[in-house]
Specification:
- The chain is rod-shaped and about 110 Å long.
- Strands 1-2-3 form a three-stranded mixed β-sheet.
- The protein has a domain of about 80 residues.
- By secondary structure, the protein is of the alpha+beta class.
Length: about 130
């Protein structure tokens, strides 16, 4: 007769972005809930006699009503993935141009030119003139 024991499950829809490629993600999370809501008069009596370890985090019934919002919020937040991915093996984005590597698996760039030789590259690109003209 301490209170009401709430046991149940909840499903919440999730929407976000992949942390590697920024693709939109939509998913669902399923959580299991269990919480004891104590009667307000039980909590007051327990505080007077110090025979229970009830603190500020103890869920209380208020006029025979349960406030489920904190319980649901905490359960869903704890079930969220720390780093959501669109696929388990998502390759992410190209570090040079930002292209999504999942769309173009053969994506590549030319080898970078050593800046010490960049001047020679410019000479090769210029058309050569015949000195006899």
């Amino acid at each position: 007769m301490e209170g009401v024991l709430l046991t149940g499950t909840a499903t919440a829809g999730l929407a976000g972005e992949c942390v590697r490629c920024l693709a939109p993600i939509e998913d669902e999370v399923h959580v299991t809930l269990q919480e004891l809501y104590v009667y307000a008069d039980q909590h007051d009596r327990a505080a007077e006699h110090d025979d229970r370890d009830l603190d500020d985090e103890t869920s209380r019934l208020e006029d025979d009503l349960l406030d489920l919002e904190p319980l649901l919020r905490d359960a869903v937040v704890l079930a969220l993935p720390f780093q959501p991915l669109c696929m388990d093996d998502c390759p992410g984005l190209c570090t040079e141009c930002g292209a999504r590597l999942a769309d173009d698996p053969d994506h590549s760039h030319d080898a970078p030119i050593d800046p010490r030789w960049a001047g020679l590259q410019q000479l090769q690109a210029e058309p050569t003139q015949d000195p006899h003209d």
